[in-house]
């Protein structure tokens, strides 16, 4: 699992929403500072360049300012904010690329050898086989030195995932969103979310294993 960067609402959300509706600039600045890094990371999962992702995030904040008056609190402010971002990213013409990525995943079955997982007739389908489970990462002083390198390699592996896997792993393991939030935002079933998360995590893990083997 990648390092989790949690984005928790500080203080009373109702008061924050009320301040935003009053046009309180300091409340808006606080929200921007808190959520922009996470929004940018999710946007990069949908669009091909960081520059476009920054445009998407900027458009998201503009949309929030225009739409905060209609916010009714049916979901958390964070969930509503991410929903705006995803809708804007989709409107930037990435739906075709996303569908192509999903077609590749369906054809290949993922980037990790399927023989390493339990079959559909097993009581725990999709889990690692005992004989093929990933080796634990080094816990020695040398392993600590590799820590930052492994994070960099993991991010590179994440960036190479098919779009839906990349977005799900980013939301779950980097931003700390729970399964229900991800399913709501991406409009996918819980089962689909689990498959995407498992395949994405497994692929990133494979990249890390290969890196450790090559540097041994």
From TrEMBL:
**UniProt keyword annotations, A-Z:** DNA-binding, Sigma factor, Transcription, Transcription regulation
Tell me the protein's name.
RNA polymerase subunit sigma-24
Q: Which InterPro entries match?
A: RNA_pol_sigma-70-like (IPR039425), RNA_pol_sigma-70_dom (IPR014284), RNA_pol_sigma70_r2 (IPR007627), RNA_pol_sigma70_r4_t2 (IPR013249), RNA_pol_sigma_r2 (IPR013325), RNA_pol_sigma_r3/r4-like (IPR013324), WH-like_DNA-bd_sf (IPR036388)
Protein species of origin = Mycolicibacterium mucogenicum DSM 44124
Q: Which residues form the RNA polymerase sigma-70 region domain?
A: 31-97
Record's family? Answer: Belongs to the sigma-70 factor family. ECF subfamily.
| Stretches assigned to the RNA polymerase sigma factor 70 region 4 type domain | 158-203
* Alphabetical list of Pfam families matching this protein: Sigma70_r2, Sigma70_r4_2
GO BP field: DNA-templated transcription initiation
Point out the coiled-coil segments of this chain. none
Transmembrane region positions?
A: none
| A GO molecular-function descriptor | DNA binding
């Amino acid at each position: 699992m990648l390092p989790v960067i949690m984005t928790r609402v500080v203080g009373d959300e109702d008061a924050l929403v009320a301040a935003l509706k009053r046009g309180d600039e300091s409340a808006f600045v606080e929200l921007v500072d808190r959520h922009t890094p996470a929004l940018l990371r999710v946007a990069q999962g949908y669009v091909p360049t960081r520059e476009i992702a920054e445009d998407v995030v900027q458009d998201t904040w503009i949309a929030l300012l225009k739409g905060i008056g209609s916010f009714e609190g049916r979901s958390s402010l964070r969930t509503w904010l991410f929903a705006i971002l995803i809708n804007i990213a989709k409107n930037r013409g990435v739906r075709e690329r996303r569908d192509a990525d999903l077609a590749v995943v369906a054809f290949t079955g993922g980037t990790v050898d399927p023989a390493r997982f339990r079959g559909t007739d097993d009581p725990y389908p999709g889990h690692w086989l005992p004989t093929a489970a990933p080796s634990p990462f080094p816990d020695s002083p040398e392993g600590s030195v590799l820590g930052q390198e492994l994070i960099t390699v993991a991010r590179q592996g994440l960036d190479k995932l098919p779009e839906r896997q990349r977005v799900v792993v980013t939301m779950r393991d980097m931003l700390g969103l729970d399964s229900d939030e991800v399913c709501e935002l991406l409009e996918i079933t819980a089962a689909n979310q689990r498959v995407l998360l498992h395949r994405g995590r497994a692929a990133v893990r494979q990249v890390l294993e290969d890196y450790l083997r090559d540097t041994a």
